[in-house]
Amino acid sequence: MNRNILVIEDEPAINDLICMNLEVAGYMVTPFLDGEKASAGLARHHEYDCALVDIMLPGKDGFALLPELKNFNIPVIFLTAKADVGSKVKGLKDGAEDYIVKPFEMLELLVRLEKVLERHMTQAEVIQIGDVKIDPQQRKVMKNGTEVYLKPMEYDCLMMFVRYQNKALTREQLLAGLWGQEFEGETRTVDAHVGRIRKKLDWQDVIKTIPKIGYRLEVEE
């Protein structure tokens, strides 16, 4: 899809880590370490699909950047160490799509980014895997032309596999990506969701079990 993500984070090591993981996941990235420089950069180019923004930035903070980003219809996810309720409420009420407190799992960030991009998708991009078609815009799954009903969490689990197809995902990664790193459920919760997806799509041989690790969606490339 080659979506372009704006990363505004003043800690070079964190900025580099986020950018590296986004690039591995297939995104293009544009990084900034300073709020003022990011603001000046937006005036020159503002074709971004989403912005990951720290709140405490030199020059101009994330709250000040939010209206500028919204003016260019760029959805914003705040990434910040400010865990107080007041800051979170302000960020969300002012128009941020999500608010993630540091430290966070990178896989969780990627999944939440994908959900924001899905909400702001301007046109359907249908995904075809064998006889299964997935319409992310409508969150609709079809098999051989017949709609297959997936519960919301089953659909989100399916999309994680699709996003990381041919890569092994541990049960812990799936738990963190779907329910957040603070979820205290058991890994068999993942097994139950995977079992239902396999049954509904007849994907017993498509979603492979990786012994002692987790699962992998195998797709011919």
| String of helices and strands | EHEHEHEHEHEEEEHEHHEE
Shape: elongated
**Cα end-to-end separation:** 16 Å
Helix content: 40-55%
Query: What is the CATH homology-level superfamily of the largest domain?
Result: Response regulator
Number of helices: 8
Domains, number: 2
Strand order of the largest sheet: 2-1-3-4-5
Total strand segments: 12
Mean pLDDT: 87
Write down the Rg.
18 Å
Helix-strand makeup class: alpha/beta
Main sheet summary? 5 strands, parallel
The second-level CATH architecture of the largest domain is 3-Layer(aba) Sandwich
Low-confidence stretches: none
Assembly state (oligomeric): single chain
CATH class (first level) name of the largest domain? Alpha Beta
Instruction: Tell me the fraction of residues in β-strands, as a range.
Output: 15-25%
* Annotated CATH topology of the largest domain: Rossmann fold
Structural description of this entry:
- It is built from 8 helices and 12 strands.
- With 221 residues, it is an alpha/beta fold.
- It has 2 domains: 4-119, Rossmann fold, CATH 3.40.50.2300; 127-217, Orthogonal Bundle (Arc Repressor Mutant, subunit A), CATH 1.10.10.
- A 5-stranded parallel β-sheet has the order 2-1-3-4-5, sandwiched between helices. The chain has a 4-stranded antiparallel β-sheet with strand order 6-7-8-9, with no helix packed on it.
- The model has no long low-confidence stretch (mean pLDDT 87).
